[in-house]
Design brief:
Blueprint: H1 15-21, H2 23-39, E1 47-51, H3 55-63, E2 70-74, H4 103-109
Parallel strand pairs: 1-2
Helix pairs in contact: 1-2
Amino acid sequence: MKQFDKNVSFASVDLSKVAAQKPSLMRRQLDDVYRLLLDGRISPISTTAYCISNIEQAFCALQGGKVTRKLVVILSADAVVKATPRRNIVRYTAGGCHLSVDRRHRRSWM
Protein backbone atom coordinates (compact mmCIF):
# COMPACT_ATOMS: atom_id res chain seq x y z
CA MET A 1 0.00 0.00 0.00
CA LYS A 2 2.95 2.26 -0.72
CA GLN A 3 0.79 4.47 -2.94
CA PHE A 4 -1.01 5.80 0.14
CA ASP A 5 2.31 7.21 1.36
CA LYS A 6 2.22 9.52 -1.66
CA ASN A 7 -1.10 11.06 -0.57
CA VAL A 8 -3.08 9.64 -3.48
CA SER A 9 -6.72 8.65 -3.67
CA PHE A 10 -8.44 5.77 -5.41
CA ALA A 11 -11.93 5.78 -6.88
CA SER A 12 -14.21 3.50 -8.81
CA VAL A 13 -17.12 4.30 -11.09
CA ASP A 14 -19.70 1.88 -12.44
CA LEU A 15 -20.17 3.32 -15.92
CA SER A 16 -23.00 0.91 -16.69
CA LYS A 17 -25.04 2.58 -13.94
CA VAL A 18 -24.18 6.07 -15.20
CA ALA A 19 -25.22 5.04 -18.72
CA ALA A 20 -28.49 3.53 -17.47
CA GLN A 21 -29.44 6.32 -15.06
CA LYS A 22 -28.08 9.40 -16.85
CA PRO A 23 -27.54 8.62 -20.54
CA SER A 24 -27.16 12.28 -21.53
CA LEU A 25 -24.38 12.77 -18.96
CA MET A 26 -22.68 9.61 -20.21
CA ARG A 27 -22.87 10.84 -23.80
CA ARG A 28 -21.33 14.23 -22.88
CA GLN A 29 -18.55 12.58 -20.88
CA LEU A 30 -17.69 10.19 -23.71
CA ASP A 31 -17.70 13.06 -26.23
CA ASP A 32 -15.31 15.02 -23.98
CA VAL A 33 -12.97 12.06 -23.54
CA TYR A 34 -12.99 11.33 -27.27
CA ARG A 35 -12.14 14.97 -28.04
CA LEU A 36 -9.27 14.96 -25.52
CA LEU A 37 -7.89 11.74 -27.06
CA LEU A 38 -8.06 13.18 -30.59
CA ASP A 39 -6.33 16.39 -29.47
CA GLY A 40 -3.54 14.37 -27.84
CA ARG A 41 -4.17 15.98 -24.47
CA ILE A 42 -4.70 12.59 -22.84
CA SER A 43 -3.54 9.07 -23.66
CA PRO A 44 -4.64 5.65 -22.46
CA ILE A 45 -3.00 4.41 -19.27
CA SER A 46 -1.76 0.91 -18.65
CA THR A 47 -4.41 -1.47 -17.40
CA THR A 48 -4.14 -4.60 -15.32
CA ALA A 49 -7.19 -6.86 -15.55
CA TYR A 50 -8.24 -9.66 -13.20
CA CYS A 51 -11.17 -12.03 -13.42
CA ILE A 52 -13.48 -11.84 -10.41
CA SER A 53 -12.39 -15.43 -9.68
CA ASN A 54 -8.91 -14.04 -8.93
CA ILE A 55 -10.00 -11.11 -6.78
CA GLU A 56 -7.61 -12.20 -4.02
CA GLN A 57 -4.66 -11.82 -6.41
CA ALA A 58 -5.97 -8.40 -7.45
CA PHE A 59 -6.03 -7.20 -3.84
CA CYS A 60 -2.54 -8.61 -3.26
CA ALA A 61 -1.29 -6.73 -6.33
CA LEU A 62 -2.82 -3.51 -5.01
CA GLN A 63 -1.42 -4.06 -1.55
CA GLY A 64 2.05 -4.88 -2.86
CA GLY A 65 2.16 -1.79 -5.05
CA LYS A 66 2.43 -3.89 -8.24
CA VAL A 67 -0.54 -2.08 -9.77
CA THR A 68 -0.01 1.66 -9.93
CA ARG A 69 -2.34 2.71 -12.72
CA LYS A 70 -5.65 1.06 -13.42
CA LEU A 71 -6.97 -2.25 -12.16
CA VAL A 72 -10.07 -3.70 -13.79
CA VAL A 73 -12.08 -6.58 -12.33
CA ILE A 74 -13.88 -8.53 -15.05
CA LEU A 75 -17.20 -10.13 -14.20
CA SER A 76 -18.35 -13.15 -16.15
CA ALA A 77 -21.32 -15.46 -15.78
CA ASP A 78 -19.15 -18.57 -15.50
CA ALA A 79 -16.71 -17.14 -12.94
CA VAL A 80 -16.39 -19.03 -9.67
CA VAL A 81 -15.82 -16.90 -6.59
CA LYS A 82 -14.67 -18.29 -3.26
CA ALA A 83 -17.05 -17.26 -0.52
CA THR A 84 -17.43 -18.33 3.06
CA PRO A 85 -21.07 -18.45 4.06
CA ARG A 86 -21.89 -16.55 7.18
CA ARG A 87 -22.80 -18.84 10.04
CA ASN A 88 -25.80 -17.99 12.16
CA ILE A 89 -24.58 -18.15 15.73
CA VAL A 90 -27.07 -18.16 18.57
CA ARG A 91 -25.69 -16.69 21.77
CA TYR A 92 -27.38 -16.83 25.11
CA THR A 93 -26.38 -14.53 27.94
CA ALA A 94 -26.02 -15.98 31.41
CA GLY A 95 -28.40 -13.58 33.15
CA GLY A 96 -30.81 -13.04 30.27
CA CYS A 97 -34.39 -14.11 29.68
CA HIS A 98 -34.84 -16.14 26.50
CA LEU A 99 -37.97 -17.07 24.55
CA SER A 100 -37.95 -19.63 21.76
CA VAL A 101 -40.90 -19.61 19.35
CA ASP A 102 -41.30 -22.15 16.55
CA ARG A 103 -42.40 -21.10 13.05
CA ARG A 104 -45.93 -22.36 13.54
CA HIS A 105 -46.60 -19.98 16.44
CA ARG A 106 -44.33 -17.10 15.49
CA ARG A 107 -46.75 -15.38 13.08
CA SER A 108 -49.74 -15.45 15.44
CA TRP A 109 -47.64 -14.34 18.41
CA MET A 110 -46.00 -11.43 16.58
